[in-house]
Structure formats: structure tokens, C-alpha cells
Amino acid sequence: MNAQTDISMKTDEVLRVELEVFRQQHRDLDEAIRAMQDRGTADALTMQRLKKQKLRLKDLIARIEDRLTPDIIA
Fold this sequence. Notes:
mainly alpha; about 70% helix; elongated
């Protein structure tokens, strides 16, 4: 795991900032994918790479959200 995605040593404040950055990147990728599909300029390899990158961001966002959300014992 590289230092950028290793969330174990980061403070909650740093994770909140990174979370917003990753959410924006995820939205930007979504818009780019949609625009390429709408214009018909999307080749299969590029689309596959963008979607894979979007999934990596989604997983990272979920991991950060899990770390920031306190455990509640019911």
C-alpha cells in the first residue's frame, strides 16, 4: 500500500480534507465518462481505465468514511 492511500497514520482532519478531494475527483471522473459517452468519443480502453480509477476512488472514500465514522454499540 502506498503512502497516499495508507490512512492508518493520518489524523481525522487530514482525512476529512482528503475525503473531499477524493469525492470531487470521483465526481469529475463521472462527468468525464458521461461526456465521452454522450459525444461518442469514448474508446473501450479509455473508458475501462476511467471506470477502474473511479472504482478505486470509491473504495478509498468508503475506507476513509469508515475510519471517520465512530463505532456505535447497539
